[in-house]
Amino acid sequence: MKIEYFDADVSTVFQELAGTLLNYASAVALLLLIWAGIYFMYSAGNPEAQKRAKNMVSYIILGLVIVVLSFAMIKAAEKIMV
Predict the structure, then answer these.
(1) N or C: more exposed end of the chain, with fewer CB within 10 A?
(2) 27-50, pLDDT tens digit by residue?
(3) Are the CB atoms for 32 and 60 separated by under 8 Å?
(4) What is d(CA 29, CA 75) in angstroms, rounded to the nearest whole number?
(5) Phi and psi (nearest 5°) for 45?
(6) What φ, ψ does residue 9 adopt, rounded to 5°?
(7) Is 3 helix (H, G, I), strand (E, B) or coil?
């Protein structure tokens, strides 16, 4: 099936879109990890602030894992469909 405006297959469009979103998600995760690290450094021994920074890192990594797994699912579905 061809898309008139893209002049490409639907699967190619989804591949490009998924790759682009994965790149943006990785960049955002990196920036958030840096922010969490700075927050941890400025916690100055405050246990609650340190716990919050550690939780931020955990959630960022979990979110990145979910994004990567969704990308893998798209790739797997593409291989099954073709």
Answers:
(1) N
(2) 999 999 999 999 999 998 899 999
(3) yes
(4) 22
(5) 85, 0
(6) -70, 155
(7) strand
Structure confidence at residue 5 as a pLDDT band (50, 70, 90)? low
The arithmetic mean of pLDDT across residues 12-19, rounded, is: 79
| Distance in angstroms (rounded) separating the CA atoms of residues 82 and 78 | 6
Q: Which long-range contacts (CB under 8 A, 24 or more apart) does 10-14 make?
A: 11/78, 11/81, 11/82, 14/74, 14/78
* Entry pTM: 0.74
Residues 6+ apart with CB under 8 A from 67: 21, 22, 25, 26, 29
